[in-house]
Write a structure and sequence with these properties.
Layout lengths: L9 E4 L3 H12 L4 E5 L7 H5 L4 E6 L4 H5 L3 E4 L8 H8 L3 E3 L1 H8 L13 H14 L17
Parallel strand pairs: 1-2, 1-4, 2-3, 4-5
Amino acid sequence: MQYNELKNLPCVFGLGISGISAARYFQRINQDFFVVDSRNNPPSVEAINELSCCKGHIFGSIPSSVLLSASVIVLSPGVSPKDTLLKDAKSAGVKIIGDLEIFAKECRGKIVAITGSNGKSTVTDLAFKAIQSAGKKVQIGGNFGIPFLD
């Protein structure tokens, strides 16, 4: 694979549950992209190989030039935003976002976002049940439920 083939494409950084969800999102909207993961053998490799819009993948050691050439980096929650490669990309002007940002722009419904250090799962479950009992259509997404972009 030639790295210049990946230039100006979105990059999905991290192939955990959220990363593969972001990759499937790009496939659904017919957007070419590439994926990177610092692990030599990340999960979901088989799923990535089935996505025709995935134009390349780099596992293990990631050359900084690859991230610097991305149009945007969709960062999985398991990857530290303090990673040196990401700091360099951000300093060079590459936008770094999460799957929640994409979801928030695409979602036509109302969103209840729950953040914090403790009790998020409990509060999310209570909010879900309260909204559901009010007769509204509701889904849980993110770390507790369906990945945002699925």
